[in-house]
Amino acid sequence: MDFAYSDEQKALRESTIRFARGALNEQLAERDREQVFSRELWRECARIGIQGLPVPEAYGGTGLDALSCAVVLEALGYGCRDGGLVFSLSAHLLACVVPLWRHGSEAQKRRYLPGLCDGTLVGAHAITEPGSGSDSFSMRTRAERDGEGWRINGSKTFISNGPVADVAVIFAVTDADKGFHGGVTAFLVERETPGFVAGQKFEKMGLRTSPVGELVFDDLFLPAEAVLGEVGGGAAVFATAMDWERCLLVAGHVGTIERLLETSIAYARTRNQFGQAIGKFQAVAHKIADMKVQLEAARLLTYRAAWRLQNLRNASLDASMAKLMVSESLLRTALDAVHVHGGYGYMVEYEVERALRDAVGSTIYSGTSEMQRSIIARWLGL
Ligand SMILES: Cc1cc2nc3c(=O)[nH]c(=O)nc-3n(C[C@H](O)[C@H](O)[C@H](O)COP(=O)(O)OP(=O)(O)OC[C@H]3O[C@@H](n4cnc5c(N)ncnc54)[C@H](O)[C@@H]3O)c2cc1C
Questions:
Q1: Which CATH class is domain 236-379?
Q2: Which band of pLDDT confidence, cut at 50, 70 and 90, is reported for residue 46?
Q3: What's the Rg (C-alpha) of the chain?
Q4: Is the distance from CB of 244 to CB of 250 less than 8 angstroms?
Q5: What architecture is domain 124-233?
Q6: What residues are labeled active site?
Q7: How many angstroms is it from 348 CA to the middle of ligand 1?
Q8: Measured in angstroms, how far is the CA atom of residue 372 from the centroid of ligand 1?
Q9: CATH number of the 7-122 domain
Q10: Out of 63, 104, 233, 346, which residue is the most buried by the measure of CB atoms under 10 Å away?
């Protein structure tokens, strides 16, 4: 067992942090307030290969293994204070690009991956519907055979990148009798397709620079070539997306936890009350000590999940454990960071309140904490 970074991983970590600090943190409070998604920053990130980290170079990607992807995403979450941008990039990469790379036909990969990797295209993943979230398998969107293709009607909601996405992986029932396993199919849809409508854009509590909204399919016709994977194989496509998302989206959170820890230490050393630095009060110091323990535990669980994603046939249990533990650690750390900063922590200028608002979503998207616990319990035979 080896816990050291390789030279390549060390270099990737350092260069990503340098890039993120230098290029991605400008006018953040304004962008957050106005909910601005920046295509310019999106293209900047593509210049260092974020949007195609694990994708083979032949399709325009960076060709990294999953553990090295985790190292880069962690560095991004550490250096980039724009949690919404990191989230949009991760959703695009892990729930659109990865399933396309793993399940797409050669023609689909050639058609979409270069643009998705080079920052020209934005991707989305759409399964949630107004009536089905945690119980996503009970979706109502239907795809019916129409000649050589499919006619799709229904709608999706809370879709990250939905308002700006050029390509979306969407799911629809193709055989209601078979249920989710065998009865749901994944499709690739392009923005300009008639019948594909970006519906309402939502205003949200955190991650405000990451646009989220509805997608509506109004008699949307898709040719047979738009099926991603097999007809009836939507469950496999969804499983790939969730395994990668749950293992690797949290890598960015690990970086954010480290940044919040450092911010809290710096503040606790310099803020004086009752004639001494507040870090000398045990009540404050213990909060910060807990942050450090959560950081190191979160990092180990994430790295191991990423390693298993690369090397084992099934990493779903690891994915759920990492998702649950790291997202809850992020939320706790962000709340403690606000408390360590006292009244200043509650003010926008100090930026920890934004981290807290961003952190709340992490325990909801990609399956709520309750659902992760249920998945883990199922793996334990309960
Ligand atoms: C910021 C953000 C981004 C998102 N991005 C996307 C996206 O890109 N694509 C996409 O498809 N979806 C996306 N979602 C949707 C997300 O996956 C769902 O919100 C989530 O799965 C929960 O579904 P729901 O909102 O319908 O809540 P519900 O399923 O209605 O749950 C409400 C509450 O009931 C609990 N609950 C439900 N069922 C059970 C159960 N069996 N046992 C115990 N507790 C239960 C839940 O844990 C929760 O606390 C996003 C959501 C957010 C907040």
A1: mainly alpha
A2: very high
A3: 21
A4: no
A5: Beta Barrel (2.40)
A6: 245
A7: 28
A8: 11
A9: 1.10.540.10
A10: 104
